[in-house]
Specification:
- The complex is a heterodimer of chains A (363) and B (310).
- Chain A is α+β, with helices and mostly antiparallel strands.
- Chain A folds into three domains: 43 residues, no CATH class; 235 residues; 71 residues, no CATH class.
- Chain A contains twelve helices and four strands.
- Chain A has a four-stranded antiparallel sheet.
- The two termini of chain A are 31 Å apart.
- The N terminus of chain A is likely disordered.
- Chain B has 310 residues and is of the alpha/beta class.
- Chain B has two domains: 211 residues, P-loop containing nucleotide triphosphate hydrolases (Rossmann fold, 3-Layer(aba) Sandwich), CATH 3.40.50; 48 residues.
- Chain B has eight helices and 14 strands.
- Chain B has a seven-stranded mixed sheet, with helices on both faces.
- Chain B is elongated and about 70 Å long.
- The termini of chain B are close together.
- The chains are: A alpha+beta (363), B alpha/beta (310).
- The interface between A and B is large, with 35 and 39 residues.
Amino acid sequence: MSTFTRGSTSKSTGSTSDGKNGTTGGTMNGTTGGTLKATTAEADRRPRLSGMTWLVWRQHRAAFWTILAATALCVAWIVHQRGRLVDFLDGYGYPGKSLDEAGGTFQQYGDAFSFVSLGLQAIPILLGVFLGAPLIAGDLENGTAKLVAAQSMSRTRWLATKLALAGLVVVVSTGVLSAVFGWWWNPVKSEAMVMDWTSGEAFNTTGPVPVALTLFSVFGGVAIGVVLRRTLTAMVVTFGFTVVLQLVWGYFLLSLGNVVTVTTNKGVTDENVFPSLPHGAYEIDQSYVAGSGDLVGWGTCSGSLTDAARQVCLDKEDVVGWSVRYLPLSQMNAMQWFGASILFALTAGVVAFLFLWGRKRLV
Amino acid sequence: MYAGEPAIEAYGLGMRYRRGWALRDCSFRLPAGRICGLVGPNGAGKTTLLSIAAHVLQPTNGSISLFGEAPGSVESGRRTAFLAQEKPLFRRFTVAETLRLGRELNPGWDRRAAEDIIRAGDVPFDARISTLSGGQRTRVALALAFGKRPDLLMLDEPMSDLDPVVRHEITGTLLAEAAERGTTVLMSTHVLAELENVCDYLVVVSGGGVRLAGDVDELMSVHTLVTGAKEGDGMPPALGHHTLVESRTSGRQFTALIRPEGPVTGPWDMNAPNMEELLLAYLRSPDAPPLITPTAQVHGQGFGAGAVAA
């Protein structure tokens, strides 16, 4: 986990001309044992971190490496799962044959999505609480913000480096996960029985949405941390903030699309008069439409005992057909980008606040 | 009298916290190249003053300049080093990594100076900061401050958790480094014994204001410690026209620290006070008239000047 930084540290210590310090470098390297040669060579080949970047990476390397390692594990798992899914679908004959008939044999492949999706949806909350909230609150609490402020570099630089590195790790991690998860889901995207695309489990885990949600949660956590200046309090409040963000986001999710309305005029009682929606469309609501164009609830006349009585009732209401409002699957991408851009704008606002605050009261 | 470039100039500095004023109308000047003790009782505003100078706090009113620059400017950030009272360090870093922090963040980093200070205390370079003792941590923090090669070094209670031997040794290092490079040092403390033979300049703050500021020799020379037999209550009338800093009686004796406004005559013992007596007198009597000697005055500051026969 620490090979990268350990390698560069030993290099810096080892390069001194002083004999005693050279020994120190030796003992430090000794702890890494057999990997010494490999890590040193590796460190030389890679671009060496320096300045503020080195400091921020060194301080948060455990968190950063944990995030990146967990991402890699998750990606490996998804690639494996996709392989199994594609094998099954090929053997089954999808999309020629509908998955509705597969029954229990498909169950495990569908469940895998829900399981992984649940983990992905928890990422904004987890990273907000464990990466965002302590990012600067920890330095304010331990006084290390004062230590950094006492060096020659400006605090704006420190703040910018912290936000940039944390943001980079978040974007790389969530971006890769989102892409790989979307790639896994793509073959069965239009199957509502796998994942309904308007539900959080699909909408919040693919495209730009996980990146935007996580970035806003993490930077929101940073802002909460700098205001409260206490790590634990900041983590608790950030937890509340991220959960509320998820709820608000879920509430407004469908408003991101342009609802399509389809109306018919062939009555409502005959067979096959219900409008056919595109495959994968999400139906928001349905109602009868009267000759005047007014909508009438589809429960109207349901109290009639006979078909004839119902027909009389419908005629009296002048019902001429169905009106169905829905969101087509083709809008998913646009909705995700629209929602994500709102979140990105909010994130930019938070970053602006952080820099303003950084000029006024950073330590 | 206005010798040398000023390292610090404070103009009417005030700092108000929620519970009240920690610092009020604080003006003084510290010429460059001096080793200045910042003295005061607990809660006198020493840390607040240093924090404002180190750009950790923004003053409520007034201003301070370091070598003519505002705190927080690139220039003053490079030329000054500040060691906060709690000596913050990254606990999970090793000593070597802590020094690397200094090297990465300071363009003029002096690696040898920093490593020499660490080595003098036999602190292992691969030890984590969290495993070090308080004194070792102070040493690492000092090494970080020295390695920056500052022109102005501000230390907030630097020796408070060191044993006398280490304190002595670190003080020696401090003086040697400062003398070699002409570093200005502003060091706060409430341990008066730390100051004797270390400081050649003094700033005493108490109750949020500057009570005494100036060159140590000058401050000593304008004060007289008068000891004599007590006659009735209070001060002998013959001393009345001198400025009284503090008078105490014990049994049939009285002791008074005065700033003579002319020849002192009378049946008393007159001595020059030592630094501890001088400081104690000012710290014990917050109502004594403040004394800012001309070298410690900023422009437009007149009070106290007449009291100095210089």
